[in-house]
Design brief:
Elements: E1 3-5, H1 7-23, E2 31-36, H2 40-55, E3 59-60, E4 69-74, H3 79-98, E5 103-108, H4 114-123, E6 129-131, H5 139-149, E7 153-155, E8 162-164, E9 176-180, E10 182-183, H6 194-198, E11 202-203, H7 206-218, E12 223-227, H8 244-252, E13 259-263, H9 272-280, E14 287-289, H10 297-302, H11 309-322, E15 327-334, H12 341-354, E16 358-363, H13 381-404, E17 410-418, E18 426-430, E19 435-438, E20 448-456, E21 461-465
The chain binds 5'-deoxyadenosine and iron/sulfur cluster.
Residues 77-78, 191-192, 291, 293, 331, 333, 362, 364-365, 367 line the site of 5'-deoxyadenosine.
Length: 468
């Protein structure tokens, strides 16, 4: 049974927000900065932190010298992100020296690891508050405790996680929005830290999700992405007869013109029912992010992925039967412990066979406490870099080819922002999520337009509006 934070408890947090608003009223214009690392789930969590901060009367800034409170929402998936966080936290010594009352908080997945919290405790005295993903819902209470007791806060208890509805959200932008539909992960891929820091899989109730989506559509959002570490196992913990495909259909039924996207799908749980539902639901994007991680069966087994390359290719073929125009993207890890050159060749082969529209490639990063961290890892960083470069070249080649095939076609796109460039000043996305550069008035942001694709390269498409 999923633990749920009661509405009384959330109400209490909102009361803390009111008290804190009073407290911070000595500042003319209280300013907060929220800096987010990592995945979209973390971006969605930061919207809750901003929601609470807005309730406390804060406006937002990107200037760390101007901010009265800085919250750094961290990622633990790879070492590189952790190093960047620690570097940036260290640099906050300067801002705090200039502004001694500044409050510095570090939260998110990185600090849910004991060794990282200890490191911050010992070596980063500039940090006033540390809290893990399981404590985010009581951020106002933790902040008040820090201010009253005048001591550093470390809230990183181990937990399998709970669900908290009703936390206020502060979204960036008016066109695209995310909805977290579930939290945590049960898969324990041997390289991955996520199940250890984000707890077990737990799904929000379908009615709560649909009502949030309905609200977004009413507010004019045009691009809604539902989020989870593995959305295909949505609902398994609820026992209410709604699976992920059913949930997509329920959101699709909300009246209004919008695109419905989702992230991320584990290949082992992607079903024919999902593909059929995607094909039948008019608002559902024909895009699936289906991380394969490796094209070699021995490596997949050692990663604990629970599918073979043949299973994966079968699913891709089935999905394409339902949606011939399906955009497929993936994540790949190169240099998993013990991966040989021959095994890596299988990954190249699979990628060529699938023909991904885009690939996100990562060099394996050792995560303390995961099973892969204790596996022999004889290949050097340089050898892994060679594989990374090879796969990147292949990915660029395939994306370029796929993008050039759009030239001459007319597509419906959603204009979602400005590029900051004079020529091709607008950015847009195709139904499948491909980036399109356009020329036109910024007033068109948030509207759907028919666009003729005139050019394409590895990274983007270029187009002209038909009805400009
Ligand atoms: N090293 C490198 N990449 C990783 N990922 C997850 N854990 C690791 C790791 N230890 C990648 C996977 C996943 C994506 C979000 O990050 O490819 O799909
Ligand atoms: Fe990590 Fe695997 Fe869960 Fe994705 S499915 S979050 S890679 S353990």
């Amino acid at each position: 049974m999923t633990a749920r934070i009661t509405q009384d408890e959330i109400k209490k947090q909102l009361e803390y927000c009111s008290e804190l608003k009073e407290h911070f009223s000595y500042l003319d214009h209280p300013l907060a900065m929220v800096d987010t690392y990592g995945c979209q789930q973390n971006e969605a969590d930061s919207e809750k932190i901003r929601g609470y901060l807005a309730e406390m009367g804060f406006a937002f800034t990107q200037d760390e010298f101007a901010a009265d409170i800085i919250v750094i929402n961290t990622c633990a998936v790879r070492e590189h992100a952790e190093m960047r966080v620690l570097g940036n936290v260290g640099a906050l010594n300067h801002t705090k020296k200039a502004k001694p009352d500044q409050i510095i908080a570090v939260c998110g997945c990185m600090v849910q690891q004991e060794h990282m919290t200890n490191k911050i405790k010992m070596s980063y005295p500039v940090v006033d508050m540390v809290f893990g993903p399981h404590e985010l819902w009581r951020f106002p209470e933790l902040l008040e405790e820090h201010l009253i007791r005048k001591r550093r806060i470390f809230a990183t208890e181990k937990s399998s996680g709970a669900i908290a509805e009703g936390i206020p959200l502060r979204r960036d932008g008016k066109v695209k929005a995310w909805i977290s539909i579930m939290y945590g992960c049960n898969n324990f891929c041997t390289y991955c830290i996520v199940p250890y820091v984000r707890g077990r899989e737990r799904s929000r109730r379908p009615e709560d999700i649909v009502s949030e989506a309905r609200q977004l559509v009413a507010e004019g959002y045009k691009d809604i992405t539902v989020l989870g570490q593995n959305v295909n196992s949505y609902g398994k913990d609820l026992d209410c007869g709604v699976d992920f495909a059913d949930l997509l259909a329920m959101i699709n039924d909300i009246p209004g013109d919008f695109i419905l996207r989702f992230m991320t799908s584990h290949p082992k749980d992607a079903t024919e029912k999902l593909f059929r539902t995607m094909a039948q639901c008019g608002k559902c994007a024909h895009h699936i992010h289906l991380p394969v991680q490796s094209g070699n069966d021995t490596v997949l087994k050692r990663m604990n992925r629970n599918y073979t390359s043949a299973d994966y290719l079968d699913k891709v073929a089935l999905a394409r039967e339902y949606m011939p125009d399906l955009v497929i993207t993936t994540d790949i890890i190169v240099g998993f412990p013990g991966e040989t050159d021959e095994q890596f060749e299988d990954t190249l082969k699979l990628c060529r066979e699938v023909g991904y529209d885009a690939m996100f490639i990562f060099i394996y990063s050792k995560r303390l406490g995961t099973p892969a961290a204790t596996m022999p890892d004889p290949f050097t960083r340089e050898e892994k870099q060679v594989r990374f470069d090879k796969l990147t070249a292949l990915s660029n080649e395939i994306s370029g080819r796929k993008h050039r095939a759009y030239i001459g076609k007319t597509l419906r796109v959603l204009i979602d922002g400005e590029t900051g460039k004079d020529e091709y000043n607008l950015s847009a996305r195709t139904n499948g999520g491909r980036l399109v550069h356009l020329k036109g008035s910024p007033e068109l942001i948030g509207s759907f337009r028919e666009v003729k694709i005139t050019d394409g390269n590895t990274w983007a498409l270029y187009g002209e509006m038909e009805d400009a």
